[in-house]
Amino acid sequence: MGGVALVLGGGGLVGHAWHVGALAGLADVTGWDPCRAALIVGTSAGAVVGAELCAGLHPTALMDPGVGAAPTTVPRPDRGSRSLRPAAPAMALRALWARAPAGLPTAGLLPRGRHDPAIISDAIARLHPPASLWPSTLRVATVRLHDGQRVVFGRGAPGGERVDLPSAVAASCAMAGYFRPVPIAGEDHIDGGSRSATNADLVAGGTFDLVVVFSPMSLDVSASRRPRRVVPALARLHRLIHHTRLHAELAALRRHGTVVVALEPGPDDVRVMGSIASSMDFGRRAAVARAAREGVAERMRSAPLARVRALLEAAAGSG
């Protein structure tokens, strides 16, 4: 297949801002346009960014407030009493028994969310008329709620195009306990990050020149500093769990000879991003994007990434 594949992980609104800044920093240094990726695998916030790139929105344009599909207001929850009943207790028990990633049993044990995911699907529909037309390069990862199975939508993906793009992206973003699950083909679907924050293994088998993975929910341990306070230490542990899962997926890709680089938030990014619980903090967007742009640009200029930089510069020149 050749070309550059992008893997864009989850992370809520803050993760979306980090993606935009990080992609802008990548473009600043290499001149490569992420809109030209040969394949984009998007999970949750990454699915939104993937849809924006496929609509031709360059990340430098997405740095401006109000551009793209990221919400600018907090979605209101449904009115009425909230049930505390777990959304999928049987799935949660099976996931625990199978020692599945912690996000999966958590999603089953949390109650159904009350916020309307239409705030996402409506924005994607405005970018992609007609909504039924899937971009050829985009794959969107979701999880089927009743059994915890990953379902990937897109042209040539196992789930195919049997759902419109806005619904698939909204389902990928439907964080358990926050957004309502999105019904697709009679089954409720939720955040693809419940199984993996990036789903990087979905690029396995492709013959790409380079795979670049953006993982807002993990931590660049090569640049990390151990915090002394309890709360930052817990946030660091959460990010390290995602880091470990990510790099296990990347090791499997590298065994097939794929050139892969993972870009993760460093300590300066994390300080601005806050904890995972701050993922829907709208006030952090501008500062997070700026920090990510500067941090990724600095890393892309470093000697260890000289080969990656050369591959991206070559891809930019071939266009």
Could you characterize the architecture of this molecule?
The structure is a single chain. By secondary structure, the chain is of the alpha/beta class. It is built from 11 helices and 8 strands. Strand 5 (182-184) and strand 6 (187-191) form a beta hairpin. Helix 1 (12-30) packs across helix 2, helix 2 (45-54) packs antiparallel against helix 7 (165-173) and helix 4 (89-97) runs antiparallel to helix 5. The radius of gyration is 18 Å and the shape is globular. The mean pLDDT is 90.
Task: Name its key features.
319 residues, alpha/beta, eight-stranded mixed β-sheet, 40% helix, globular
Number of strands: 8
Strand content: 5-15%
- State the major sheet: 8 strands, mixed
Question: N-to-C terminal Cα separation, in Å?
Answer: 16 Å
Low-confidence stretches: none
The portion of residues assigned to helices is 40-55%
Topology as H/E string?
Answer: EHEHHHHHEEHEEEHEHHH
Report Rg.
18 Å
Outline: globular
Number of helices: 11
Structural class: alpha/beta
Question: How confident is the prediction overall: mean pLDDT?
Answer: 90
